[in-house]
Amino acid sequence: MGFTSALSLYSLSHPKVSAGADHSHSHPLKHRLQSEANPLTVRRRCLRFRSVVVKAAAASGRGRRVYSQSQPPLINAPVKQVASFIVPAGVFVAVTFVLWKLVEKLLMPKPARSSLSAAENKSPERGMKWSFAPGTNLLSGFTAKVDRESKQKLNEFAKQLRAFRSVDMSGCNFGDEGLFFLAESLAYNQILEEVSFAANGITAEGTKAFDRVLQSNISLKTLNISGNPIGDEGAKILCEILVDNAGIEKLQLNSADLGDEGAKAIADLLKKSSTLRVVELNNNMIDYSGFTSLAGALLENNAVRSIYLNGNYGGALGANALAKGLEGNKSLRELHLQGNSIGDEGVRALMSGLSSTKAKLTHLDIGNNSISAKGAFHVAEYVKKSKSLFWLNMYMNDIGDEGAEKIADALKQNRSIAIIDLGGNNIHAKGISEIAQVLKDNNVITTVSPLP
């Protein structure tokens, strides 16, 4: 019964095929030609034959031989066709993918981060890194070249330190490491007398380069570290080293970011040094406290000749403190206090101290200190008594004609001043006339500024 129903399903599509054995083998050649001519029909028949074979096997063994004989030729044809299509398509896709990856690798630029990260992770080379031109050492491609040229330049500088008496290396931007390299040339050097390391980016750490170098050097007379941000800490380190130095006579620390603590370190050095003659501390941040420390050093030091404190913040209190120190000093020859806003009260105290000192001052700079005609009176009183003052600067104050008349009257009695600057003091025709009249009788004065 099952066999009959299976065949009935097949006979609906193919009425010529019957369940009998005679009909299944009646036209084999005709059946094969039809299969080869229409592959789609073969495929459909194949599917149906498979279902029929299963049904027939369950019912009876008679039909098994009929359908099993016709299965092999029905399966091979569609498999070959599918394979002939899939294999070329797969090869085409694979080749296309490989070519796409190759083009992407050739055309796409590498990320810039990779080179940067490699440069960042690379450990820095040992030794000195010195920049002979601003920004040159920022280009990673030129690192080796810069390093070679930097060392070559420093070697040339080192030779100069050994060959010349005076060497100016200001503004070379070699920094702390460059100074450590060059400082070795100063040890036991008996030729060099003056060197400038100004404006080289040297910090407090760099001042340590002079340790065990300046202690053994007795030929160097002038050391200029101006324009380097060594600060108070650097001043302390340097002064501790210079305590054991017996050669340096001039120390220049202008624009070095020094404050009151730095001034105190300089003052402590002055108390112990017997060789230091000139101290330049211009354009720093030294206030009243720092001036007081330096004044205390003047009471004990009898070797220093010149002190430069231009462009600081001494004020009237700072001037008053210095005056007390000057009273007990015998060695000072030059005092430079331009731009400290000492005012009339400060100049009064200062002139009082100078009048009482045993030091023979030759140069006095009190320019740009807000001194009026009242303050000019105190300056005139000192000028009348001084027998050593050679150069007087009162530039950029506000003494006016009244103050000019007082100074002119003092110059009639003074026979030591040769150069005087009264420019920028709001002096008009009347004051200028009084000064011009003095020049007729005073043959010592060579330069007066301003004159019409």
From TrEMBL:
Pfam families: LRR_6 (PF13516). SMART domains: LRR_RI. GO terms for biological process: nucleocytoplasmic transport. It comes from the Eukaryota. SUPFAM superfamilies: RNI-like (SSF52047). The keyword Repeat applies. InterPro entries: Leu-rich_rpt, LRR_dom_sf, RanGap. GO terms for molecular function: GTPase activator activity; small GTPase binding. One of its GO terms (cellular component) is perinuclear region of cytoplasm. Keywords: GTPase activation, Leucine-rich repeat, Repeat. This is Uncharacterized protein.
